[in-house]
Amino acid sequence: MREDRPHRLLIASHSHPQLSRGGAEIAAFQLFRTFSEQPGWETWFLGCQASRPDARPGAAITQPFSEREFVYGMGRFEWFKFANRDPNFPKAFRALLEQLQPDIVHFHHFLNFGVEAFHHVRQVLPEAKIVLTVHEYLLICHHYGQMVTKDRESLCYEASPTRCNRCFPNISPDDFFLRRLYIDNFLGMVDHFISPSTFLAQRLAALGIPPQRLSVIENIIAAPAAPRPARPVEDTGPLRVGFFGQISRLKGINVLFDAAEMLEAEAFTDVVFDIHGDYRGQPPELQEEFLKRLAGAGRNIRFHGQYDPQRVDHLMRQVDVTIVPSIWWENSPVVIQEAFRNRRPVLCSDIGGMAEKVRDGQDGWHFPVGGAIGLIAVLKRLCRDRDLVRRVAATIRHPPGALAILEAHVGVYEMLGSIAGDQAVP
Amino acid sequence: MTARVAASKLGSSAPRQAPTYIDFYGYHPAADGWLFCGWIPLAALRAAQQMDCHGTARVSFEDGELTGNIVLAGFERDDLANRGIGVVLFLASSGRPLGRLVTIDLRVGPTPHRLLAVDSAPQLRDAELASRLRPILTGAIRDKGRIELLALLSRRGYSGEDTLDRLTDFVQLDVEEAVLCPPDGLVLIGWHLAAPGTVASIRVRCGVNTAELRPPDGIVVERSDIIATTGEARGVTDPFCGFVAYVPNIVAGDEPVYIQVETQRREIGFKNVPAARLRGMPAMRRILDAFDLQYDEVVPALRGVVAPAIGRLNHARMQDRPTVTELAFGPPVAAPHISIIVPLYGRIDFMEYQIGLLAAQGGTAGAELIYVLDDPPKRRELHVLAESLHLRFDLPFRLLVLSDNMGFAPATNIGLAHAGGTFVCFLNSDVFPGTPDWIARLVARLEADQELGAVGPLLLFENGSVQHEGMAMEPIPALGGLLFPRHARKGWRPRAVSGLVREAFITGACMVMRRALAEELGGFDEAYAVGDFEDTDLCLKIARRGLACAVDHDVRLYHLERKSQDASGGWWRRNLTLYNAWLHQCRWFGEPGTAQGASGDA
Predict the structure, then answer these.
(1) What's the ipTM?
(2) pTM metric for this prediction
(3) B153, B182, B213 — which closes off a domain?
(4) Same domain, B338 and B456
(5) Cα of B462 to nearest chain A Cα, Å
């Protein structure tokens, strides 16, 4: 590695923010943007496109947006073992690697590329370092990576062929074993793993990834649109509790309904849940359930519908506290970072990535996962003591800025010896 | 040729033994062969009996000869005493007329033997032949030959009835579609079920023509539906029972076509073949929609079925030239420097963008604009649009409205025949001007370089990435290793390149050349059906003339690739492309699989 030329970094993501607005692709793209602005770095972005309205027959990888942004028009991705059966991908991806000659290929996700993408990098660029940022638990859990059992939606602590077979009786333990074997063999080619949360890092370590190959670095989230001034916390009137994001059972919407019903039964109207988000992506029976519960929810719930991501900072500043009542583990929810930067304390379930990011009593408050009674106890305390809300808002830690996150990445790349000339490869 | 000359020629290899004689003979359609009655030496019969009454023979007629296996049966003849024994011979063959019988050279056992036809030996028609032979064979020597020949003689001929049901063994066959490939070839699409080992032969017959049909020689098609409805109940489970077969030189005038199945028991059954009802494009589509080809299946299917069938159908289709109706909008361009020829198919409204952009960019000074409508149902829509365009932009253009859909090459060639420019620009309807003076620039390149045969622009997708900057031929393994044009750097941002870059192949989507050269080379080759490969074919013809093709990177146009064509997939479109690829490859690189064809370099 010569120090007199720029470091060459290819960031690969399973999508592209121009094509979908998931947190992982935004994080990958923000990292690409931040690195692109740094002197001494040559950076490229490779995203994927799932539906192909403007597919180019015969051209698997194209440059629809700019000189440094590539898009792979994917095909034939197999979700069980994350294999990419598209006959056009290997040649196109290898040709791209040949041309760009990156020192580091940093994947944000193996979805759509397939885990074999690591193999292609190894074959074409034996010297290049492969870094993988893991964004959820898909490597561990076949149930949409939720680590929540399929039948009862109870928390799952460990994946094994027999346990997974219990969730998927039609898939034999042998098949789960083969899945693990297949994935692990390609993960073995990854030089370093990055997890946005310690909780996920621990799960990956439990999967057998050596701790020295694991780092915890927070995601860069989309920059805020200039928000209007915040509404102050009032001493009287109802406490405004904001829910932001996708409306689903796993996101804990029913915990809010349970709590609202109990409060209504007590004729306690000093709390209002402001629900911002979309329920229309849910299966029809869940949509129906949501609408039914909403109709009978009483005075403590206000449903505002879908919101424009550009307006999230503004909307958050209209509530006193935010709530993340998920009944699954979460990893590093974007909504927590958004609440922090708007100085809104977060009420959250006491598990996984949420409990890790929100320090109880400093950034917000924990309540028992799925427990409406515990939630009500916290809410009543806050209604009585509005000053507590103001005090915690003052102690919220600032989410790390883009440059700090970039520095953390540079640290990993240096540690791998991919950007400093004299360091040994670990 | 006279019988005497023929006999003397054969005399050089004549057997030593004295010849014997044939008394009468004839063709028996139900038996599907010739029967001869005469006599041979007793030793010859004995030798044949050693071989289950089988042997071989060469039968010479005045107008030709037949060779093949024979079956024979001996019978006592009092008139011969010890000189020999009576014999009936059978040779399987078609019944085409061959003139008078001259000799039969028989080979049974070690010694060859010759039979001569007596001068008065009559050639009998089937009914008389059978009535004379039946008593002879009934009283013949009781051996295997007698049984076989009696079975042959008792066969019922084709009478227009389906008789497969009457066979002892389970044999089913159906031809769902027969497509005539002019003048006399036939594609049969159908299925065939039989217990393994029961069928001896399947023949397609029409008049005096006959051809053996071996379904594995054609294209084998999976027909699980037939197994479910018919096969399973009879214990036949192999779903690959469908076939698409090409039978050359079979159709004889208006004679009915039928299939004759012969079982191992020597029983015969018939199945009618439906009359050919499709012509032209629907006929091609019907054939090409009947199968899906991958890898090793591609080349044999193309060689055995697709190439001969589609080649003939498309050739016949191209013979029917459409009526061309010309409509002029605005005054004709006097002595045009260049003629721009645009075939229209599908999206007629693209013309509005093309003409609007040309007008907005300062018109087409010295150029004449010719639109060829290759989509007759869109005629009215085009008339309305053309009038409006003329009124809005005042840019003169001509419409050539074809009475039938012909395809890209013929439509463009009709435009070429109406062009008057020194230069011509072949332009797809989904190519839109970018660089304002694109025509003048491209023509200037040709004027500046006499060694340049054709020049095209850099073509971009709507997002500014490369659609075309030249092409190379590349073999595609899943498509039988056939060579297909690959667009270099497709979908990538344009390179930092300017000026003219020579390329082996450029696209016909936008191609400028001298009209004299285009006419000399015959425009785009119409043997390519519908539209594929005619541009690379033209580039190869240009190269053969010692001229070059090039892309001018300073000239940029937009190309919404294939958006103007019918996007509905289906097997037929893909298989038609395979046909065109095959034709292209056989013409320029040798048939795939041959030493010459193995090379992918262009």
Answers:
(1) 0.76
(2) 0.81
(3) B153
(4) yes
(5) 9
